[in-house]
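Structure first, sequence second, as always.
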């Protein structure tokens, strides 16, 4: 007589729900990039078409700096709000402290730029220098801050954009008082447009990390 071995019950099929999880402290820079990009295109662009001995458009002198200032102010506010939201989701106290220090660095950087440009124009007695130094100097400060933020957040896109802005903003001085606005408009505004598109992909890749 043979005895059949008992059949082992089939293992239950376990299903899991995969939920995207974004890295704590992640920053969505798209709104900031769009604001700064518009500032470059509208502010520097309007200055480019209205500068020189034979301007393409006859615009009021106050319009280009007003458009640039409004865009930069909006971008700075959005960058600050994005950083604050990231701090609330950060789990490491060191990341929170780094975020606060980087936020304060924006104030320090632009205060130092103001003192440098004011002192330089006063020492040389040439107030027209401000028209060249403010657009290029602000691009340099923003670029270097992006480099610092990108390094701290391990964000290669942010780091690369900052490097590009720092180099093209200072390199624009070689184009003269009129040409620098075209360089800032095309190189800066174009870079922000590309960065905005790539930021969407970066966030999608970051959100693709899963936990079960």
């Amino acid at each position: 007589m043979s005895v059949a071995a008992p059949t082992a019950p089939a293992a239950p099929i376990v299903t899991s729900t995969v939920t995207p999880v974004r890295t704590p402290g992640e920053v969505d820079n798209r709104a900031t990039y769009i604001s700064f990009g518009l500032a470059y295109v509208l502010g520097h662009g309007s200055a480019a078409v209205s500068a020189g001995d034979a301007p393409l458009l006859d615009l009021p002198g106050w319009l280009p700096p007003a458009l640039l200032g409004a865009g930069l102010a909006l971008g700075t506010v959005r960058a600050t709000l994005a950083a604050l939201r990231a701090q609330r989701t950060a789990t490491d106290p060191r990341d929170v402290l780094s975020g606060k220090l980087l936020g304060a660095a924006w104030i320090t950087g632009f205060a130092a730029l103001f003192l440098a440009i004011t002192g330089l124009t006063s020492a040389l007695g040439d107030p027209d220098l401000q028209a060249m130094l403010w657009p290029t100097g602000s691009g340099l400060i923003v670029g270097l801050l992006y480099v610092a933020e990108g390094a701290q957040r391990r964000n290669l896109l942010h780091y690369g954009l900052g490097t590009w802005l720092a180099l093209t903003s200072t390199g624009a001085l070689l184009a003269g008082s009129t040409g620098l606005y075209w360089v800032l408009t095309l190189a800066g505004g174009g870079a922000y447009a590309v960065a905005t598109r790539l930021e969407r992909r970066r966030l999608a890749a970051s959100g693709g990390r899963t936990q079960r």
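Margin note: Confidence is low (pLDDT under 50) at residues 13-22, 208-212.
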